[in-house]
Amino acid sequence: MALEGWIWLLGILALWALAFWLGGRQFRATQSPQGRALVDAIIQAERLRKTDPLAADRLLDQHFASQAEAAAAERDQLRELARYDIATAEQLRAELEKDLASDEAAHKEFSRKPLTDTSVQAALVQIEASAAQTRDELVGLEAHIAQLYRRG
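Above: the chain's sequence. Below: its structure in token form.
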């Protein structure tokens, strides 16, 4: 039971590190409202960390979870519309290609770290799984886009 708890904790830490890294890259690239919200959450968490480090971690986890939910809902809507609309399907393809590029950059970054760290190993496994899923979805989407073009 104790080993399962450690594995769960390491997985959460790896996901948090990956989300933090990707969120930071997104903010620097776009300086979007989501990026400003990320900076606000980080600042608030760092202030809170002085008195309650666990609460600071929970705050950041909540922020990343809410961002992930919003992104997933937006992506689901794109997937639904892409079933019938070529422009939306192409937009979805561009989003998936960005995701794949982010996965590859994250994999490269995490690969530089010592593999003896189990959180690094867990992050690499998550990144590889995400990249594989994205590649699979891109293959299916390419076939669907070709079908939409044939329909006219």
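Residues 2-151 form one domain.
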